[in-house]
Amino acid sequence: MALMSCPECGKEISDAAQACPHCGHPIQEPQPQDTPPAPRKSKRSIIIAACVLALVAVVGIFVGVQQKQASDRAAYIASLNELRAQTIRGGSVAEKMCNLTKQVWYNTIYKERDSVTDKYTRSGGVFHDDFNTSLSLLYAEDNTATVISGLQANRELVDGIMADLQNPPAEFAACYEAADSLYDAYCGLIDLAVSPSGSLKTYSENFSKYDEDLLKYYNKLEALIPSE
Question: What's the pTM?
Answer without folding.
Answer: 0.72
